[in-house]
Amino acid sequence: FSSAFCWFISSSLASAEPTTLVWPQAPDQGRIEYLYSFSKPEDLKIEKNTGSKILSFIFGKGKSGEERLVRPQGIAVRAGIIYVTDTGQGCLHVFNEKDKKYFSISKAGDSLLRSPVGVAVDQKGTIYVSDSQLNRVFIFNSKILFRGELGAGKFSRPTGIAVDDSSGRIY
């Protein structure tokens, strides 16, 4: 802030008259629209598939004791599917709103996800998840099957990740 701006605020606060300060000026019509929020599959009216129900029965329902977002970090959306990384549970949540299905991924090959931060999905449905504690990017195909990893021994705490569909590059 400039000194003139600060002086304006301090001098107007000293007066008895109320002052309304709007800077920058608000747009005529709002540009952001609230659609909805969610933190668990039920918020999107998503039913778990039979396989997920069996896995939850055998292995439990995540580290927090329930299936919900604990510390969501990254989000990607492609073809009606919402992907959310969760550092609190060490997993990738997959919400398929169109098919009303939900499941989560906490394992990539032989590794358990520890701190999945970023997520990106390319036009083929390939999913890229960056894990800042394991210093790697894990790759899953469109059917959520583990396909490989990038950066073992080369990355240092990767966070954000993006995919450029036109060039096929990962950033």
Detailed description of the structure:
The chain is an alpha+beta fold and 171 residues long. 13% of the residues lie in helices and 32% in strands. It has 2 helices and 13 strands, in the order αβαββββββββββββ. The strands form 4 sheets. The protein has a 5-stranded mixed β-sheet with strand order 1-5-4-3-2. Strand 6 and strand 7 form a beta hairpin. The longest helix has 12 residues, at 3-14. The protein is globular, with a radius of gyration of 22 Å. The chain starts with a helix and ends with a strand. Mean pLDDT is 77; it is low at 1-13 and 62-66.
Please give the structural blueprint.
Blueprint: H1 3-14, E1 47-48, H2 50-59, E2 72-78, E3 81-86, E4 91-96, E5 101-105, E6 107-108, E7 111-112, E8 116-121, E9 127-131, E10 136-140, E11 146-150, E12 163-164, E13 169-170
Parallel strand pairs: 1-5
Antiparallel strand pairs: 2-3, 3-4, 4-5, 6-7, 8-9, 9-10, 10-11, 12-13
